Inverse folding.
């Protein structure tokens, strides 16, 4: 489940978060929003503790929608230390989103994982 954030809880949950936050601006009527939801849940599981995922209903939180100048839904914002570090919008589907999420994981997590790829079983551990 994705944490639902409102204008009232935005500062505490997003801007003051000690870890980067991927904010998903969506709406109940948005078909693409529903399509990407399982991918975002997978992303949340893979980045647990390193990137926080929250959802915002753009229709019910009009001030936030205006503040972040939404042009289309869904729009994803990666916010770190109160600043937008990355904006993902206008993607055409699953593959575009997967590439964007992979880039975010590569830059913001210690151990990037590839979507839909098996985990190798012959890993060697090395110390630094």
């Amino acid at each position: 489940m994705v944490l639902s954030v409102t204008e009232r809880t935005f500062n505490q949950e997003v801007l003051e978060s000690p870890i980067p936050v991927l904010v998903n601006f969506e709406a109940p009527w948005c078909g693409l929003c529903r399509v990407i939801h399982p991918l975002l849940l997978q992303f949340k599981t893979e980045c647990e503790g390193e990137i926080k995922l929250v959802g915002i209903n753009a229709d019910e939180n009009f001030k936030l929608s205006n503040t972040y100048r939404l042009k289309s839904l869904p729009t994803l914002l990666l916010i770190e230390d109160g600043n937008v570090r990355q904006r993902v919008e206008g993607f055409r589907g699953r593959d575009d989103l997967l590439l964007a999420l992979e880039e975010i994981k590569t830059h913001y997590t210690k151990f990037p994982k590839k979507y839909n790829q098996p985990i190798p079983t012959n890993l060697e551990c090395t110390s630094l």
Observations:
- The CA atoms of residues 1 and 13 lie 15 Å apart.
- Confidence is low (pLDDT under 50) at residues 113-128.
